[in-house]
Specification:
The chain is built from five helices and eight strands, in the order ββαααβββαβαββ. It is α+β, with helices and mostly antiparallel strands. Helix 4 links the parallel strand 5 and strand 6.
Length: about 180
């Protein structure tokens, strides 16, 4: 007999004065597609292709919804403060040994507003997966994202490289760690 164990993760909401981190929903596809179609957003991530193929945003949202997912993705939703429904996304990808990797992007209209720092800080403080450690990495040509991490208490632990789908090449990265608790 073959028995498969499935772990189901409940994804909480995280409230701040400026926005709400909430799980994605199907109606987010259009704005996610709009913002991730921007080359400036795609080239600062490892996984967003440019140009964005038809259906890519839909497939991403579909992957974020099942209870047995291995990554929780939150919309940075500003509607509670009369802002837009999507200002960016932030995620935690599960790793072994009670660790996760933080990933995020912010839509260009909200760059240089402190939104990324506030979202990372809110997610770290909430620690919804009860992690002992969180990791993050940023491309070395994106010092603004590096500042977000250091402002949120992440420590630089070394250089590496990651493949960028949008750039179709390996890109030098800085890696950061935050011990929780």
């Amino acid at each position: 007999m073959n028995v498969e164990t499935v772990t189901i993760f409940e994804q909480p909401f995280v409230e701040t004065e400026r926005f709400r981190l909430r799980p994605l929903k199907q109606s987010d596809v259009g704005l996610i597609e709009y913002y991730t179609s921007d080359k400036r957003v795609a080239t600062m991530t490892t996984s967003i292709p440019h140009p964005l193929p038809p259906g890519a945003a839909q497939a991403f949202v579909d992957r974020s919804l099942p209870p047995e997912r291995d990554e929780d993705v939150w919309a940075i939703d500003g509607t509670a403060a009369d802002g837009p429904e999507i200002m960016g996304l932030i995620s935690l990808a599960r790793m072994d040994r009670n660790q996760s990797e933080v990933g995020y992007w912010v839509a260009p209209p909200f760059w240089n507003t402190g939104l990324a720092s506030e979202a990372v800080r809110a997610l770290v403080e909430a620690n919804p997966l009860g992690n002992e450690t969180m990791f993050a990495s940023v491309f070395q040509d994106n010092p603004a994202s590096a500042r977000v991490l250091t402002h949120c208490g992440f420590e630089y632990i070394g250089d590496a490289e990651s493949f960028s789908v949008a750039r179709n090449t390996m890109v030098k990265t800085w890696t950061y760690l935050k011990r929780m608790g």
